[in-house]
Amino acid sequence: MNWPSVGYVSLEDFEGQPEHVARLLEDAPPPVAALATVRWTDARVATLRSEAAHRHASEDASDGADDTATDTAAIPGHGLPDPVVVHAEVVVRNDEVLDTPDGLWRRWNHARVTLRFDDAVIDPPDVDPGAVLAGDAHIARGELDHVAGEDAWELRLLVSPVGEVAIRFRDAQVSVRSVDESAYDVLGDRPTRGWHGPVPDGWVEWATEGVRAAAYGDLGGLHLADDASDVDDVDPRWGFAPLHAAAWFDRPEMLEELLRRGATLALVDSEGRTPLTLAIDRDARRALRVLVAAGADLEARDSDGNTPVVRAAWGGHAEVVRALAAAGADVRARGSRGVTLLIAAVDSADVDTVRAVLALDVDRAGVDRDAEDDEGSTAADRAGLLRDDAIAALLAGDATA
To answer: At what angle do helices 318-326 and 351-364 cross, to 10 degrees?
Structure first.
């Protein structure tokens, strides 16, 4: 149920989802069909509020009718006993890759989705709107389904780092309009809440026992997990096996235990990422050390064609770049679109990462400052495009930069 930009529809890429949505759309009311096309990934909630359902009761109710007759019926077995009207605004975005004469460029499309759910219940009933609206909160995934046996629908949103929020409703109103990128960016400037629990993502509570134990670093829980007999089992909902969760949450002892049990070091998750790739993306340095020591392939390329060290440079993870280089990663390898390690570091706009790569140039003569990517750009050209004076000064040899 991805919604890449105004005007066309794509679907979440997991097995059976296109057929699932197709069945939904056959009989769904138009507003629900519109909901099924929304791409929720990376969306940010702009507003969220609820009000008593009776405020919207018909004013034409007969004078002799029971006062309770205008109250909407409760949806049993879910959330609050009394339905409400839920109002929300969500700013969604999708990236397009454009093939231009100057090379491949990424363009973001943004839209504001205004939602009203009538006769609705929210689960959990005590969800804190302030946490959902925090600057560090975003929607990681969304699912829409019909409630079997009831004339109702359920929208489930995985909000990181809050957890899952479900809205069950009988009727909805949906409107979509295109907005500027600034409408999305300003939501990230709101005060952050941070995460004060043992893990920074609420989805873990809904994962399989093995994945949940690995995420918490709970060795005892791993032993008790019903599905611990096969350590490579991938959670069908979240796409992680225990080894991925341990790498994601930087649990070195759990990684060692899973590897001792025979977990596959190069196992990919549902998005094609290995545990090493996840450790790099999360800057999980303890996990990285365990995976490298266990023999993780330092030259394996990801789905974009990048080696681990190039991916780390592009992500601005200076210490990870240093660690991978020290472990023997090929610092001359090129990544997506022919970028060198130095160009990837410059594109990250992280000064420390550029310093780390330039230090390799001094120590091992492994980085060519004047090398060009497939588009004919050097690291200095990229720094000029980014208008980053500090990085430009580093590339020019200014030691004080």
So the answer is: 20
- 111 burial class (0-12, 13-18, 19+ CB within 10 angstroms)? buried
Residue 53 pLDDT: 72
Contacts of 198 (CB under 8 A, 6+ apart): 216
Chain centroid to CA 237: 14
Q: Is 126 helix (H, G, I), strand (E, B) or coil?
A: coil
Residues in CB range of 318: below 8 A, 6 or more apart: 350, 352, 353, 355, 356
Question: To 10 degrees, the CA torsion angle through 160, 165, 171, 177?
Answer: -10
The predicted structure's pLDDT at residue 133: 92
Output the pTM of the full model.
0.54
Name the phi and psi angles at 145, rounded to 5.
-150, 155
Rounded Cα distance, 212 and 225, in Å: 9
Residue 291: what are its φ and ψ, rounded to 5°?
A: -65, -40
E strand or H helix that includes residue 139: strand 138-146
Angstrom CA distances, 60 to 57, 70, 192, stand at: 9, 10, 45
N- to C-terminal Cα distance for the chain?
47
Q: How many CA atoms lie within 13 A of 6 on its CB side?
A: 12
Angle at 268 between CA 264 and CA 274, to 5 degrees: 85
